[in-house]
């Protein structure tokens, strides 16, 4: 299965609580942390929700 590499580049401070929860769901909780996840529709939806705080590499 294809992988997608996600790095948190923005802070969740003063953001909607659901956006903070989405970052935690992706495995991100600190600035500049990187995770590699399977490229599924569920993960893509979560990335779309908080795309302004992420850097995504295919």
UniProtKB/TrEMBL annotation:
**Keyword Transmembrane helix belongs to the record:** no
Q: Pfam families, per this entry?
A: Ribosomal_L30
- InterPro entries membership: Ribo_uL30_ferredoxin-like_sf, Ribosomal_uL30_bac-type, Ribosomal_uL30_ferredoxin-like
GO CC terms: ribosome
* Record has Ribonucleoprotein as a keyword: yes
Q: Any idea which UniProt keywords this protein has?
A: Ribonucleoprotein, Ribosomal protein
Top-rank lineage group of the source organism: Bacteria
User: What range(s) does the Large ribosomal subunit protein uL30-like ferredoxin-like fold domain occupy?
Assistant: 4-53
Q: How does it assemble?
A: Part of the 50S ribosomal subunit.
The family line of this record is: Belongs to the universal ribosomal protein uL30 family.
The protein in question is named Large ribosomal subunit protein uL30
């Amino acid at each position: 299965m294809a992988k997608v590499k996600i790095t948190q580049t923005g802070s969740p401070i003063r953001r909607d609580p659901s956006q903070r929860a989405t970052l935690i769901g992706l495995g991100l909780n600190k600035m500049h942390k990187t995770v590699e996840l399977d490229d599924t529709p569920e993960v893509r939806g979560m990335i779309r929700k908080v795309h302004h705080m992420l850097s995504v590499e295919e």
